[in-house]
Design brief:
Helix content is 22%, strand content 16%. It is built from 2 helices and 3 strands. Strands 1-2-3 form a 3-stranded antiparallel beta sheet, covered by helices on one side.
Length: 79
């Protein structure tokens, strides 16, 4: 089951593409008190906005989580 939550406590998994204060999906810095998160393969991942959380949820619901383990860099964020 996929869940999107808004939380002040984020416990992201380890990845060389992001840190605890960067979005797991796009890599953007997460503003204070605006942490969105989504559970991917049992690990709560920090997201910077509802858009990234929605995309992560869609990827998870479609069974495409390998996207995150196979990518070579975080997603490009549109201007």
């Amino acid at each position: 089951m996929s869940v999107i939550t808004v939380s002040s406590e984020v416990k992201p998994g380890k990845s060389k593409e992001h840190s605890a204060r960067n979005c797991f999906h796009c890599g953007e810095k997460i503003r204070n008190n605006e942490d969105y998160s989504h559970i991917i393969r049992g690990i709560r991942r920090a997201m910077c906005c509802p858009g990234c959380a929605a995309v992560a949820k869609t990827i998870t619901e479609l069974g495409l989580e390998d996207y995150y383990s196979r990518r070579t860099k975080v997603a490009i964020r549109p201007d």
